[in-house]
Structures are given as C-alpha cells and as structure tokens.
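ASSEMBLY PREDICTION REQUEST
Request ID: AP-0331
Submitted by: J.K., bench scientist
Number of chains: two
Total residues: 1001
Priority: normal
Notes: Please return the full assembly, not individual chains.
Input sequences:
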Amino acid sequence: MGGSDLYTGTLDVLILRALSSGPMHGYGIGLWLRRTSREIFDVKEGVLYPALHRLQRNGWLAAKWGKTETNRRAKFYRITPSGRKHLEAELDRLTEHSEAVLSVLKATPS
Amino acid sequence: MLFRRRPVRPARDLPTKLDVEVREEIRFYLDMRTQELMEAGFSADEALRAAIDAFGDADAVAAECLNINGPTKQSGSWRESMYRIGRDIGYGWRISRRNPLFTAIVVLTLGIGIGGNAAIFSVVNGVLIRPFPYAEPERVVHLLGTQQGVLSRHVYMSYPAFTEWRDRNETLVDVAAYGGWGPTLIGVGDPEILAGASVSASFFDILGVQPTLGRFFLPAEEALGHDPVVVLSYGFWQSRFGGDSGVIGRTLDLDGRPYSVVGVAGADFESPLGRRQVWGARPPWWDETVLNRGNRSWRVIGRLKPGVTLEQAQAEMDAIAQWMGEEYPAFNTAEGVRLMTAKERMVGSVRPAMLLLLAAVGLVLLIACANVANLLLSRGAVRQREIALRTALGAGRHRLLGQLLTESLALSVAGGALGLVVAWLGTGCLVALGSEGIPRASEIRIDATVLTFTLGVSILTGILFGLAPALQTTKAGLTDMLKEGGRGAASGGRGQVLRGGLVVAEIALSLVLLTGAGLLVKSFRNLQRVDAGFDAENVLTLRIAPSRENYPAHRDLTRFYNGLLARLEAVPGVQAAGAISFLPMTGSFSCAGIFRDDRPPETQRDREGRVVCAEGRAVTVDYFRVMGMTLVRGRGFTVADDSGSTQVAVVNEALVQQQYPVEDPIGKRMTANGTSREIVGIVRDVRQLGVASEASMAFYSPQAQERNDWLRRWMTLALRSTVAPLSLADPARRTIWDLDDTIPIYDVRTMDNVVAESVAQPRFRTLLLSIFAAVALLLASIGIAGVMTYTVSQRVPEIGVRKALGARERDITALVVRQGMKLTLVGVALGLAGAFATTRLLSSMLFNVPATDFVTFAGVTVLLGAIAVLASYLPARRASRVDPLVALRVE
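STATUS: Completed
Returned structure:
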C-alpha cells in the first residue's frame, strides 16, 4: 500500500497548500488544483471530497457553510493550526523524498 | 450517472443531515464546473455531461464521504455494519447493472451449482435426515434373522420363531410380526387389489403413533376366531371415503369377508413396508398351515425398553440364540437375530449412494466456484482503476475487501435464490426418476432444513469464490498498477498463478467425477449384460388373484389355471403361457426349509424346522418354456404331474452344488416345507432378487401339485409373444375376465420393464453421477477456454513480436495450446491421484468392475485431455491470427 499512501498523502498536501492562503469552497480548491498542478493526478475530480472530509476529520481542516460572491450557499474550508503543522511536516518529507529520487535519477548508471 | 439512479440512502435511524450536506456540496461543485465549461463554449447539456464525467461516480464519492464521517466508525456496531453492508450491496448492484452479462453468467453458474446441491440435499434430508414420525424413532428396531451370525437376504422369520424371540427377551417392550397382504376389495367397479399389511395387534403401539380417527388394534383382535378388523391409511380414507368420519364401524368386503374399520392412521404415518392402504390385525382364521415353521415370511419389529441401548439388546439376543442352540441343538443351530434401527433398515442400503451423490454435486459446486473466481479475477483486472480510485479516496484495504466480499456474497445469494428454483424443479425430476429406487421418496421436499442448507451453502460459496480474487485485487496499489502498465496485479505474475491454480483444480475435480461416473457406467453395463437365467425379451407379465370363494378346492384352482392358460395360448400373438408364484426381479421370494431324505433329521422337531432354506416357487407346466430357461438335465413338468401323482421338483444348479455336490440328484428325494419330493430335473440358476445378486438354492414345484395355497393361488402370468408384448395386455385382460370377471388383474408389465425396474437404483445413481460429471466437464472446459483467452489477450504484444520475427500461425497455436496442456497435465495428474484415492468408496456400488479399473481411468483421462486441447485450441487460433503491427501498437 506504500504507493497509494504516497498518492493520498500528495493530494492531502496539495489541499492543505491550497487553503494555506485563505478559506475556499470545494470547487475553488478543485479549480486551484487543476490550474496549478496540471493533470498531476489523472483521477476523477470527485476524489477531492472524500479527501476534504478526511482532512476535516483528522482535525487539519475546519469547515462552515457560507455564501459565495454570487450569493450561493457553499461549504467553506479553512486550514487549522494543526493542519499547518502537518503541511509543513509533509512538505519537508516530500522535499527530502524528491531530492532522494532526483539524486538517484541524476546518477549515471555504470 | 449522477443522482439519476436512486441515491444511496443510509440505513434508517441514521442521521441523514450529513447525507444531504455531502450531496449539496457535490451539487454545488458540479453546478460551478458546468458553468465554467459553458463559459468555455460548451452547450448546457454538453457541459453538464462533461462535468459529471470529470467528477466520476458521485454516488461512490458521497458514499466514501459518509463513510469517513460515519457516526460510529470505530465501534463496528451491528447497526453500522448493516449500514455499510447495505451500501455495499447497493453499490454492487449498480456495478452489476453495468455488467449484465457478467452478472448473468455468474448467477447462472452459481444457480446451477447451488441448485444441484440443494436438490440432492433435499433428497438426503428427506431420506436420511428427517426423523421417522414415530415416538422415539431410534428405539424402534427390526429383528432380522441371521444364519451363522451372518445377515443373509433371508432375514424373515417363521411365526413360531417370532413368538420365541418375543417371549424370551427382556430388553424389548414388545415385538410385533407383520407381512405383506394384498386383499381384493370387492365393491363397485373392477375388483381392486389393495396394498396392505397384516400385523400383530401391537404393531402400531410399538411404532408409537396415534390414529387420525378411531383406534388401532386391541390385543384380542389378533386372537383366533375374532371378527376381522382393519385400519385404513389416511390416503385411502381420503380417496375412497372422502375423509368421512362415519367410516369407523363400517365394513369392507376384502377377499369376500367383512372387515370392520376400527381406525384411520395418521397422514404422515410411514409404514415399514412402504406405501400401504390397509392394515389388518393378524387374520383370525390363520392356522398351522400359515403359521408353521416352514413359512419364513414374517417381518419382525420391536421397541427397546427405556434405558436399554441397541448394544445391550443385541447382547441379549445373542445370549438367547446361544441358549436356544444348546436347548435345541438340531433345530436352531446358528440361527440368531440381528437388531437394526428402523431407519437403518429402510435407508441403510441407499445411504452410500446418496452421500456419494451429495459429495459429487459438491465437487460440481467447487468447480463452479473456481470458474466464478476466475471471472472475478478477470473483472478485478478491469476494476483495477476503480479500486485505485477508491484507495485514493481513502478506503482502507479492509474496507475494500469488505466491499468486494459483499459483492461476491450478493452474487452468491442471488445464485442461491436461482438455485432454489433449480432445486424445486430438480427435486421433482429426482423423485420422478428415482421413485422406484428411493425409499421414503414421499418425504423429499424443500423444507426449512433445505432452505437453511441452501442459504449456508450460498454464503460459503460467496466467500469461497470471492476471497481469493478480492485479496488479489486489493493487493494492487497504484504503483503496482503503474508498474504493470495499467494491467493491474490481477493480470500480473501472481494473478496468473492463481488463475492457473484454479484451472488445475477444476481439471482435477472434473477428472475425479468423470472417473467415478465412468466406473458406474461400466458397472451398469455389466449389470445389463448379466445372464439372469431367463430371456426377458417379448414377455408380458400380469398378476391375478383368483378368490377363495370362487375356487375353494385344490382341484378348482388347478382347473382354473389350466383352462386360463389354454385360452391365453389361443390368443393371437401368444406363443406360450405360464405362471409362477414369485416372478424374478420383483423382490419377492419365499424361503422353505429343506433337507435330503437320505440324510433324515434326527429329531421330530428338526423335521418342522430346518437348518438350510431354499427358495420355493410353484410354476405351471409351460413356465420354463415361456421364460426361455435352460433345462440342464432331467425333465421339466408335464400335465401328468398333478395332485394324484408323485410329488416332484425341479431344482436349480445352486441347490445341486450345495446339496448334491458329487452324486446325481435326479431321482433323489428331498423334503421341502414338510413335503417330500422327487427331483426330476435341473434348471440353470435364475437371479431371483436382482441381476447383481447371485442365485441361491431354489426349487420349483408343479402348480397342480403344490399344497401351499398361498404359493399356487396368486400367481404372475407370463406370456411369450410373437408381437409387441404390451399389445397383448388388452386381449389378455379380456380373456381372463371372460372366464371370471371378479378376478383382479394388476402389475401388467413387460418382463423387460420388470428387469429395468430392478436396476432402478443403480441406474439412478449412474445417471445422476454422469450428469454431474458432464456439467463438471463443461464448466472445466469453459474455465480452460476462459483462462487461455485471457492469457492470449495479455500476450498479444509478445505474440506480435514473435510473428514479426517470423513465427508462423502454427507455431503460435502450438505455443498457446502447449500452455493449456501444461495446466491440463498438472490437473490430470492431481485428478488421477484423487481418483485413485477416492474411487474405492464406490466399491460397494460397482458390479464386476475394480475401483481402479485401468480402462476407465485411461478413457476419462483421454477424454478430458481431448476436451482441454479443444478448449485451448480455440483461443490459440485467435492468437495465431494476431496482426503483428496491431499487436505492437497496443503497448
């Protein structure tokens, strides 16, 4: 299950990152993800919601219902302090991981 | 896809607010996304469709969200489990609706497999498991006569022997004698022979049953000189008297005597003799001629006293036998009694065959499971992306396993429901097919036990075929999926091994079944080739019962039969006409004490009893000719052998071998049933009790001479015909009724038919096992073909490369077939080992075939091999036609 953990973890980090600059509703997060990460994940967009609910359950996100600019009811998510801590830890881990991968890739096979 | 179907509803009592909120969130997302796409230039419809498509399965997403927020996620409470299972089933239902063909194939396969099991189990349940409707049925025991401690087929007793066993034992509450009785009911319409039994007065008390109406017999009613009384069966009471309760006290005219009806038995009463219409208390006019020691035709039944075990009672019987042997050394040597429970007595002989069939149909279900597991594995590969999505959505492996297993269970329970329909139809067919061979056939029905069994089997089946594919499918993580080029783990190395293993198992199990069926078929052919000692072809048989009233004296009956046979011989198409008291293959025989007159018994007591017994049958002059029996030496009977001349007998070869092994028996005298007779001829042995049982000692007496009225009055007529035998039935009936229209005529059958019915049991099990083996073979070949097709589809690029490198179509075909053969060989090897280990269980059912018959083993191996080659040849042909260019582009 290592692979899928990594994958799930990646999505979690991306969501936390999206919310680190301010509260957003699900659609907004999705839009941000699609614009910034460009097809990084080739799965259905619905994936987003269970991830949001899971993060909320873990205490990394908080949510409340509010109104959009067009006056529609929507559920807004914001990152909690413990979410921020988790984001930082995960970013460290990912950076470390990608550096490790990159160093392997840059090595010339003998 | 979205919300067009019924949305997933949480189970009742659970908060639905969350559900609504999740759905609102998703709807908001989709609205916004649609708007975004419309702004990009899509039409409203297109935009909505694209948004939904990009989103994925909204139901699944909602379900996952609810699951994450599930009210009692950790508690695993019953309610929460039900909630989750309900959702899984709903999800599985939607999945299966998208794959109707897959679902149909799986449910059909399982329906046949489970249905077969339920049908056979309903037979096993009715025959072997359902308790007899007696009070404490396990205490009801049969007393079977033994010779030298061995249970022979002559297990019935004489009336005096019965009274001795009854009076001497201390371990039985009571003992009753009973025997078949076929009285002629004279009333309106054609005279009718009833299936009845004459019984000791205590018969019903020993069985511990209650009458529906009236009472059973009083002790006094079996006493000599008492007015005759009968008890009616429930069915007979309903059909003849319309269930009229005023029947008690009315009289029935049976054999010309008025019998008072005293009671009606219960609807569920199971007579030890099978279906009966009337029971008479021991007919009060019976005297020494019927109740002598020579007439060993009484069946004896008793009830164990409370607290006495079968073993204790048996020990007492053995002690009594020993005591009687010492008391009357000449009379009772080596005669004893074996106790057997009522159930064992009735169903013991069919138990091995029933259990065999249950095991066989179980194997068929296992093969069906293997096929379904293979299908699920293939689908697992297809569903890999969906599984990956759900994993990405945060579903743990346990959750996914649960989901997949729930789907399997839903499939198997659907299969079970279809199986019940199959079982319902199948049980009817089984009873129709095997009614002659199955005791207690009327007890076979789909009851609560069968339903429970079916449910249990369905659930077990679901777990069995669902577990391995589920484990395999969920094992694949996303990285594995990516590594294997999107094919997923189910198609990878380990999946391949699992598929191969399933096919090997299918082949092995099929081979075991085929071998068993092959052995039974061969055995059955041997049975049919046995020389039974007579020629059954072109013989019509009918039983008649001339009454005592119309033919009271010995000479009246002689004159009647002589006249009747002469008239029958004049019927066009009749070549010869004869009659016998006990037709072969009908299970009826009588056993008479015999001794050689030149070795006279020492005591008077010995003269009425005997040490050995031979089957005695009265025949008319032309009987041997009608049945095509071979006279080995001496002469047959002539019209001169009548009551005025010397008593003569024709004996069979078995009697000669045992009684006159050295000297020529012709002209010697022997005494049977107290009558001394001169042996005038020897005939070939006739297999009286069935083609599979060797003939035992037998002698024939001329009907005109025979002194026992019960041997010479109710006889079976046999007509050798030059035309189709059944076409003689009507002319024969008319001829008989022209002579006397009060004579009941029954059991009109061809002799071929009689022989066929006598092998009904072996035919039944042979037919069923062959059907099971055929289904197994079909399933296994589908399995092989399926796996080979799948393998070929996975190997398309490789095949393309090979072709590009110059391989010919033939090489490719051989390559694929070889792979199929590898699996087949392993399966055949395992199957042969399994067959060697298990066919010995069949030994008791095989006739002149060793359980490890080489020809059968070789034959089924070749057959299975050929079918396996064929099953892998078809996919191989397809593989060989692969276009290398197309194939290479697939990667």
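REVIEWER COMMENTS: Chain A touches chain B through 30 residues (CB under 8 Å).
SIGN-OFF: pending second reviewer
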